[in-house]
Amino acid sequence: MPVVGGRPVVGAQAVVVDDQGRVLLQLRLWPAGWEPPGGHVGASENPEIAVIRETLEETGLEIEIERLIGYYRFIGIRHDTDVVFRARVVGGRLQRSREAWRLSWVEPEQLPGSLFPWYRQRIEDAMLPASGVPKERIQEVGLGAVGRHGLALLGDLLSSLWPSRARPSSS
Known about the structure:
By secondary structure, this protein is of the alpha+beta class. The chain has three helices and nine strands. The strands form two sheets. Strands 1, 2, 5, 6, 7 and 9 form a six-stranded mixed sheet that branches. Strands 4-3-8 form a three-stranded antiparallel sheet, with no helix packed on it. The longest helix is centred in the last third of the chain and has 19 residues.
């Protein structure tokens, strides 16, 4: 298992990009929010194998890693390090799972407000031209970010229940 900044890599995500340049996101129920597919890396597991396995389990899609994007170390209320890859679909069929309640291909410029906040930077990095040098970023996860995420999630939920043209009036 790779170690970055003295901490082992415990998570791996795939920014899966389709032929139209859209990114695959999944909506988790707990903790609630949108994120790219991925998950836990076992103690003796290769992160590339882990993210391929997790993506298949969560989305039904077989992926091929295009490149390593970088290592992202949390500080604040989380203290993990994740590795992020850019990938493309090579097989399978998109299907929901118990971990991915909803799946959606999204334009990178139109990421949902309830995307977990730390994934924005990771997706932006994955959409940049390949530089050959993996990013190493520190991402702060504090109570403010978690609170803003909760409000965004509530806003997305209310918008889905009452689209703007059908929203009840306050009068």
